[in-house]
Amino acid sequence: MPLALLALAVVAFGIGTTEFATMGLLPQIADGVGVSVPQAGNLVSAYALGVVVGAPVLTGIGARIPHKRLLLLLTGLFVVGNAASAVAPNFTLLFAARFLAGLPHGALFGVGAVVASRLVAPERAARAVSKMFLGLTVANIVGVPASTALGQQLGWRSAYWAVAVLGLVALVSLALFVPHQPRGQHSGIRHEMRAMGNKQVAIGLATAVVGFGGFFAVYSYLVPMLTHLTGISDTSTTLVLALYGVGMTVGTLLAGPLTDRALRPTLYAGLIALAAALVTFYFTVHATVPALITITFIGAMGSLITTPVQMLLMAKAKNAPTMAAASNHSAFNLANAGGAWLGGLVISAGWGWAAPNLIGAALAVAGLGLAVTGGLMDRGGPVGPRRSKTVASSMGEPSTATEEGTAPQRT
């Protein structure tokens, strides 16, 4: 089991590296393919669009494919997309290659989360999923800075080649260490889509889009905030972003055991703490040490809400959790786009570089409202929590648990 989770974490590490490495190499990429830096920034949008489209489409196409085989196919597509990015001769083909590289992102995380949850006892499922997510957070500490440095020294194409090699390592690791997990008798695209019709799944996805939008409203403009308001030099911002990644890693480590113990309270507390941290950063951004402490805390709280949202969606989709788990990552990318857009609006309106913190806090509070609404619907008023089927077991059969996770939860 630990080696299987490690293999899944390697996949997540590669995904996290390729998703954010482009941002650090925009000037080099722009020079390499003969476009402006703003135009090169559209490559980030191309990847995000691939995630949004690929998560439901590829998960639906692979609804009857055994999970291990589907993981291998998706990882192979990830390798092809990044290798194509490395050899693309012009901007148009590079744009298409980044879209291709983003297609398997959500499906890989969705299928990987279901596989991880079935590798362990039901009461430890959230911890297993959070260990896979650790690969994503560690990528922000190690993978993104390393690929950026590599691209700056050896050319931007070398960064994509490095990610493609990472994908090959992940492919071999998955083949060696992840056990076969058969699909249930009722697997298929229609079964998955029926599960997506659950109101609680819709509320969970809306919570991810709105609540996590608060995180991205600030993250998208963190570097100009640091340079304009905190007074940190351009050369030091990479280290600060790594510190942000440390906070995200701490939050992910906390999220697993807390979610296994009490799913909804963990989600509520994470959104409340995120809103409070963003308001605090509005005031502390002008002083270096308080700003760095607050940044670390924001990273931790942003990651703390990821695992409970993922586990909630898998639980509410009952015994067809793969589509819901994958769609969660489409929701996160919509949150990225929406949060960045709203943050840019208040800056353009003249509210100042710190203003996205207030927008982010408002989004976190709105996400909390959605999460609480879902919780009240679960309780069914004064009667108490209803019981529901949760993530299917490793044998492909659904198990029964309380409303919100893979084991009896405290409400």
From TrEMBL:
It holds the Pfam family MFS_1. GO terms for cellular component: plasma membrane. Residues 379-411 are annotated as: Disordered. Its main location: membrane. The keyword Transmembrane applies. Keywords: Cell membrane, Membrane, Transmembrane, Transmembrane helix. Residues 2-379 form the Major facilitator superfamily (MFS) profile domain. This is MFS transporter. It comes from Streptomyces aurantiacus.
